[in-house]
Structure formats: C-alpha cells, structure tokens
UniProtKB/TrEMBL annotation:
EC number: 1.13.11.52
InterPro entries: Indolamine_dOase (IPR000898), Trp/Indoleamine_2_3_dOase-like (IPR037217)
Annotated source species: Tuber magnatum
Name listed for the protein in its UniProt record: Indoleamine 2,3-dioxygenase
GO terms for biological process, alphabetical: L-tryptophan catabolic process to kynurenine
Role this protein plays: Produces N-formyl-kynurenine through the oxidation of tryptophan.
Pfam families: IDO
Gene Ontology terms, MF aspect: heme binding; indoleamine 2,3-dioxygenase activity; metal ion binding
Amino acid sequence: MAPTPTLQPFHVLDDARKDDKALPAFMVSTTRGFLPRDEPITDLPAEFAALDTLLHRCPLQTATGEAGLLAEGRLGEVVEQEFPNLVEHVAKFANDQVMLTALYRDYSFLASSYLLEPCHHNMLKSGSYGLGRSVLPENISIPLAEVAKLTGFQPFMEYAGSYALYNYRLLDPALGLTYDNLAPIRAFEHGLDRTSSEAGFVLTHVDMVKESPQLVAGAVNTLKGAEHYLGHGDKQLFKDGLKEVVDSLTKINRVLERMWSRSKPGEYGNFRTFIFGIAGQSMFPNGVIYKGVSDTPFSFRGESGANDSMVPLSDNLLQISMPETPLTDILKDFRKYRPGNHMEFLSWVKSSAEQVGIKKLALEDAESATLYLQALDQVRDFRWRHWNFTREYIIKKTAHPTATGGSPIIRWLPNQLNAVINAQMEVFRALEDLDHTTPGIAEVREKVTKQKADLAKEVEKFCAERGV
Ligand code: HEM
Ligand SMILES: N[C@@H](CC(=O)c1ccccc1NC=O)C(=O)O
C-alpha cells in the first residue's frame, strides 16, 4: 500500500503580529487573510517630507479640490527641477519592513505618475495614449529600486504592495474595517475624495480581501482534512473545509457586485491611464530606462487584479487546470507580482493539493463532489461577474487592445473562465457516473452550459469587430 502523504509544513499566522515591524508587511494569516498584517502606514518620516508633499500636489484633483500637477502637465518639470534624491535616508529603515512598504507605495505612485503623465494629456488631445516617458530619473529610480529590493516587490507599482491593498486608511480606528470607514491614502485622479470612482474602485478591492481570512482557513482545512482522511478514513474535515471555501467565496462575490454602485464605468478610463504597465504597451515600445539603476530598459507589468491572491488560491486548491496556451503563460507571469509570502503560500497550496489529490478525493463520493462543484461555481461566478465589468468598464469604452497588466483584453479573461467551466463539466460527468443528480445540480449544469455558449459568441463578436 502507498504510504499516506504528509503535508509539508507552512506557517499561516494565527496572530498577524501587528507590532513586529521586522516581518514583511504582507504575510498570510487566518485573521487578516491577504490584507497587510496591519493597516498601512499613512505618514512618512520627516526625512521623506518632500516625497509626501509632491504626492499631495500630484493628483488631477488634489484633496483641496484644486487642479494638481498632473492636470497641469507639470509633474515632469517639478520632478526634474525640484525633487531631491532621498535614497540616503532609506538605510535608516532597513529593519522596518512596514515603513519600507509605505515608501515603496509612495515611490511607485510617483514613478507611474511621472511615466504616464504625457499619456493622460495625449488622451485628452487626441483620444489615444501616445508615448509615455521612456526614462525614469535618478531621484525616483534609485530610491524606488532600493525599497523594492529591500521589500521584495518589483520596482514598479504593484497591486498589493501599492495601489490597492496598501492604499487605505481607517477614518476612525475604533470602527475597524468596514467600507464606510475606509479612505484611500494616495490617488491619481479624484481618489482622495472617498466618494469618487477611483476611491470606490480601490476600496472595493480592500472590502473583498477583508473577507479572505475565511478563504485562507477553508483552504488550509480542506488540505488538512484530505490528509486526515487519507490517514484515518474519515472525510468530514475535508468536507467542512470545502464548505468553508464555498461560504467565503460566496461572501467575496457579494462584495464584488458592489463595484457597480461604488465606481462608475464611464469614469474608469480617467484614472486607468496611470495604472498601465510597461510590458506589452504601445506607450513604451522600448521599455523604460531606470537612470542610475541599469542601462538595459525595464519592462514591468502594470497593476492588475490578476495579482490578487484569492482567485489563484482557489485555482490551486481546486486543481483547476488551465490550457497550455500563451494566455496561460501570462497568468503564470502575473505570479511574480505579489508579496513574497503570498507567492510561497500559493505554491504550497498548489503542491499540497497535488500531493493529497484534492480533485480525485472530491470526485469519489456524491457529497464531496457536490461541495467541490459549488466551490468551482463560485470561482466561475467571480470570473463571469468580472468579465461583465471588463465589458462595461473597458471593452465598450476603449479600443486599446491590452489591459493594464499587458494581457490581450478580449481573449485573456475568457481563457480562464472557460477553464473553470470545463472543470465543472468534468464534475457533472463524475456525478453521472456516481448516479447522483438533484434539481440543484441540473440547474447549475444548464446555467453553465448556456454561459459557455454565450461567452464564445461574445468573444467572437468582439474579435470580429476589432479584427483580432
Ligand atoms: C471595474 C472593475 C474591474 C475591472 C474593469 C477589471 C478588469 C480586469 C482586467 C482587464 C484584467 C486582465 C488582466 C490585465 O492584463 O491587467 C483583470 C484581471 C483580474 N482581475 Fe480584475 N477588474 C475589476 C475588478 C476586480 C476586482 C474587484 C477583483 C478582485 C480581487 C479583480 C480580480 C481580478 C483577477 C483575479 C484577475 C485575473 C483573472 C483570472 O485569473 O482569470 N478584478 N481585471
Ligand atoms: N487590468 C485592469 C485593471 C486591474 O485589473 C486592476 C488594477 C489596479 C488595481 C486593481 C485591479 N483590479 C482588477 O482586476 C485594467 O486593464 O483596467
């Protein structure tokens, strides 16, 4: 008989250890999930006052309601003429990962503002982005590269360490993490007004990831439950874990739907200009030279929800197999752009799920297969709702062919949505083999079959319209 598998240990924190500044700002825990261990730092040390002041002057509309440097098209000259290189002060914070992450957020905000400022004005004048700046000056590139090296982020704005998950504060710390108590720290457009579409976009991500502790716990419990079953023959813990995963994804999807009312499709394009990356974008045909850092141009992907860890966790746990296509290579490349501890956790989940054979165990009996189907259905539901956003906020509004992260806008998301639907089809077949059917399962099957056909038609239509 084959020996029963023993999972490799992985330390998911039960206590996020908020006071320990030497630990990375982002570490997976069952209390904070994928959010940072503590609320992001809002105030920079006095040594970085020039950076803070410049970021306050930057947004298209500043906190006081006036036109900022980006609106006037003056950020470039201010950076080049007035802004000091503060890199000498970084070393003082070498043991403070939390402060380094705040510095990373702020330098990456300044870098994206500087590089993409011309694109905002080109868009206003001609309706297309034109070219961004191709050289990042030393007063930004050197400190950005330094804080990125010390924190493990890429030296370009990332989703978690900067724009989305390290960009919120609590209006009243006593009230905790509720949407009405959140405000952004930095913004490109009007985001400092917490009722704006930019704020709504950023804070809805935070509001969703706030629900991730249960998803993390559910994933760990499913894996441990599978290990327990293989050793002891009792499947209850495995099923309980899957149920937790279903419940948490259901909550996350409910929050996702609130995006529509918090951030308007017609206003998305205004701040979106500043969250583009370099890789695969017409604005940076030759990449960007980071002066004083490297003579070879850099090419980083832009911010993207693809760098969020909740959906990849679900893909890895449920062993959703993606087709071997160049589109899937993009999905894998996105994995480099997340906090180191998130990456390690996601790899652990993937290898552990393979080791215990989550999918195989789930398809062995009708109750487990039904729970597994429900979990897949929540991942499909996420990707379907998300596809609706992409259609309404982006595809109907702009002909620019690549998303901020550099993926082809029409084909990439359907690649993954189809993969989930195909995984569900496999479960329907397994349930048939087990002679198990219920009206609920038949209903899901009908919905999913129709969605697959609708998606194919829609993608074909958009491709024909755009000649791609
Ligand atoms: C108005 C709202 C949104 C729009 C227009 C939008 C758009 C997009 C686009 C165009 C991509 C393609 C990747 C790229 O190259 O950049 C993407 C990827 C992704 N986004 Fe969003 N997004 C929205 C909200 C969200 C939210 C709230 C989340 C939640 C965390 C999220 C999670 C993801 C994920 C997980 C992917 C990777 C897709 C996959 O694995 O199939 N997005 N998004
Ligand atoms: N890829 C999206 C933007 C995007 O994905 C994103 C960017 C910054 C923060 C969160 C994001 N979430 C959604 O996927 C776009 O092309 O507009």
